[in-house]
Description:
Layout: H1 2-40, H2 42-45, H3 51-63, H4 65-88, E1 91-94, E2 97-102, E3 107-109, E4 112-114, E5 118-132, H5 137-203, H6 209-243, H7 278-299, E6 304-315, E7 327-336, H8 344-410, H9 416-450
Antiparallel strand pairs: 1-5, 2-5, 3-4, 5-6, 6-7
Helix pairs in contact: 1-5, 3-5, 4-5, 5-6, 5-7, 5-9, 7-8, 8-9
Amino acid sequence: MKKIFTTLVILSIFMLQIMTAEAKQSKKEKQREQSRTEYLNLQWWEKYNDPNLTAYIQELYEKNHDLKIAALKVKEGENIVRMSLANELPQVSFDGRLGRTMKSSNQYYGSMVIPDYAQWGYLLPLTASYEIDIWGQNRLTTKSIEKQLEMLEQQERASYIALTSSFATNYFNLIKTDKLLENQKEIVKIQEEIVNKTQKKYETGLCSINELLEEQKSLTSQKELLNTLSHAQEVLINQLRVFLSDNDKDIKRTNCENLSVMKNLPTEIKATVVEKRPDYIEAEDNIKRIGYDVKVARRDFLPKFVIYGQLGLNAYHWNNIFNRPSQLANAGIMPSFDLFSGGRKMAVLKLRKNQYEEAMHNYQKAILTGIQEVNDSSVLVKTSLKIYDQTEERLKLEKQKHMLVEHKNQIGAASNLDVLYSKERELMVKNEETANKINCIIATISLYKAAGGQDLYQIDSL
């Protein structure tokens, strides 16, 4: 009875350990769910003054299949950690047996003879085993797998940053295309009117056929550009629908004039910003993971010790199964040491060392790549802002010129054709100003992505 009580106490302790581990895992899952909402970084996207964009970013979190796949990979990693953790705990199983033995001939043990017989056998044991982790090999294996889980978390974070940035880029390109398409339709109307007026001038002998053909050719070019923009608009809408996992969704967007261009971003950013990038953290975790694997490979050369034992009932008659003589108990320690494995363990150790060296190179490459992307994006932001400012100034001058031409037309110093030409030039510059404005916004998104999804107003500058 004491043995049974002792066994139940040990099993209760094991169950308590398992429940504690499950509670910790559940807490980690809640923390990861909270982290996923932080990955969206909605406060950053609100700075573009576009409520439609922030609403779509939130919808991405709820519907996008790629983000769901990334989350499922993290959950798969959590289960692999649980499997590894289970290998560190004692294993208890019940392997019962109920059968009838029928010997058809006599058995001889020296001078002793056992005649043929038939009998029932009842074996009801609890079998327990536990590998004593003297060298910490099992714990290191679990740590290695936990680092794999942390790498999967960084891959998930990278997916959030990449997808939100790609969606925002396509969304702003759609806004740009909408505005360009609107201006282009007006340009085509103006050019059609120019062609009509030039046609009348040609019919009255006031211009040559070459001048008329040039205007007609210009109209054809403007219509071609109009068709190109219409196609680009449809493609962008379809791409955004795929992001949102809804092929029939009506994509609402804000007017281009209402968007904010960030002009006070840091011009020089410290190289330490790459330390927050997912690929940098993943490369760092990979070094630690393989470091654990190297230690495991080294300790695989050492002997292993397994505690084993059985506690149960063994009887040949069912009515005697709960009697004291039927109680079964055994325990012991089983040492294990591989005397020869054909060089496999040494090959595994060398493999892990090679992987560790490879991980170091990937880590250094991640640093260099991160610094390059941050620097390139910073330069792109500064250049885009300069170009946008210059285009705004040019648009102001073009508007002033158009006002002067209209005034000259009112006093008879300029023709209606001159007014149309002036308006067309203004619209063309307006298209350039719109494109450069969106290019500035997209450049800031590129810098945001290069900085590892950080708020650019909160990172350290030189």
